[in-house]
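Hey,

Quick one before I head out. I ran the complex with S-adenosylmethionine overnight. Inputs first:
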Amino acid sequence: MSLASDLFIPTLNQQGFAVPKLDPFSKRFTEPTSGTLLEIGAAFGFATLKALANGANVYANDLEPKHLKQLSDAADGKGYRGLKTIAARFPDELEFENETFEKILISRVLHFFTGEQIQRSLRKIYDWLSASGELIVVCDTIYFKHWEAVYPEYKKRKNTNKRFPGEFNEPLKHAEKWGQHLPEFYHFLDVESLSSFFKDAGFDIVEAGYINRKNQFPDELLYDGRESVGIVGRKPCK
Ligand SMILES: C[S@@+](CC[C@H](N)C(=O)[O-])C[C@H]1O[C@@H](n2cnc3c(N)ncnc32)[C@H](O)[C@@H]1O
């Protein structure tokens, strides 16, 4: 079964799919601003293009240079001037001066990171944001049909003191029904775990909640209206 469609564009490096229809958290990133923005794991940069259309200056990062070339070509084609692209592996290969950005978006990337990588990532981002700057994170959750068989183990772990209960090596071992496109490591995140990562990194939480992906993801993937989770954290003014 191929999931590729107008709603789900396959990445060129086997890193899942890019989603052209923006969820409400990603839309917040694109709202007009005079500050500089950073999108991490932008793929073809659908959120970045909208922010550029609204007049922002945006740094767009991705692992895959071919994604960023398509993004630059699209921006050039529309006459947008505020784009800089950086091909690098976040967080280790990406460096910026402290207090460079007003908003940073990481959409559908951190569920590929271990808990320790997430902690390290948020610490770096905290420094890169200006005072009152916002970090916006969107992740896919466990609430998909194909993860149903993993859910009991996840729920069990959440009731223990396990440090990162959502970390699963080879989750397919628990989910035999459905296999294509699923990675070997997956970190199931939810409102509680993401909020805890944000608080530990020093952010004030502005908003956190689940995202119903009806009309954004293919219908066959939809589960119970919690297919993704979004969070907005603000760096406090000291
Ligand atoms: C599932 S796609 C999400 C694309 C887009 N942000 C969205 O929400 O539709 C994940 C993207 O993140 C990129 N990526 C994964 N790990 C990364 C890392 N450590 N640093 C930078 N980019 C990364 C992949 O190359 C891919 O383009």
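The first helix runs from residue 24 to 30.

Talk tomorrow,
K.
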